[in-house]
Structure prediction request, 364 residues.
Amino acid sequence: MAGSDPRGFDDWFVLSAYQRFVRQEGAPLYEGSAIEDLASIELAEWERRGGRVAYTRLGDQEERNLQVVEIPPGGTLKPEKHLYDAVMYVMRGRGATTIWQEGEQRRTIEWSEGSLMAIPLNAWHQEFNGSGSEPCRLLFGTSMPHALNLYNNSDFVFNCPYQFKERYSYEMERYLETDKHWKQRTRETNFISDIRTMELDPYPERGNRTAIMRLSMSSTSIGMHVMSASEGTYVTAHRHGAGAHVIVVAGEGYELLFMEGEPAPRKVNASPYAVVAPKHNEYHQHFNSGHGEYRMLAFRGVGIRYGWGRTFEIARTAQSTDPNAESYKIPYEREDPQIREDYYRELEKKGIGLRLEPLDQGRS
Prediction:
């Protein structure tokens, strides 16, 4: 039609399938690189499933997102299934999730604050609030944006009949009892009752008195780990591609975000449930500025079951050898000395006497 041909980028631009879907849900879409408290952000009434909901688009990417869901006292969400991976963390409350494949018996898993479980790919799931007087708030880390943008068809994403029985079937023996510590820092399980107290393995490569456990749950394609920094400790600055979401689940601290060459980093105060989601190649650094442990849950990268093959080994080596590599961490001895000086001032305000080892002694 005359006069309708696009003349520039603004004429061509349309919202992504993911952004259009969030609009159709009538839900808020939170953007940026950080949110200081996921437990208090505003949610919208959720007609499709009931309860209330909000979505994120953090780190200027649409591979991974967070979905924040609230179920009213005594409430129940409507069942759903979907062609994207989702991992559920319980921020507040107690209740249960029922999972099933069409034509099979149902399995119900009870959870409470601190619990973590993966939703099996394209299996039915339904959540229930176990309290008649208090709402519960759930956090889902998902690959929804990637799936919606890939197929550009929400009906296919939510109504595909295919059953991934290698991921989940009621006939699987000991599904809930699966718990294997494969090697240092790697655990396979399908449910963790409280990640705030689970045992982690030492992780000196990332900083003094730090620990981590990488997780594989229900063969999800979403990479996950739980990481802690002990009192008086902070983690070395590191960068990688966009898509990682780091959620504080215990303790008190702050996060620094900065791009190469920026005059000063951006500081984000952090306590449960703050989240940082750095942009592509944006350095980020975790600081424990409180008493006790500072613990974080991360959704990032590719699940352990699928791996990255040789490219993962190359990227991991580059972290410590090539400062020009996309994936790189800055050792303590190469960081701006002001970072440690500012950190020690924070500890002094709290009366915390623990300090890192001097740079010229021991491991740095």
Remarks:
- The first strand starts at residue 29 and ends at 32.
- The chain has two domains: 21-159, 179-350.
- The radius of gyration is 21 Å.
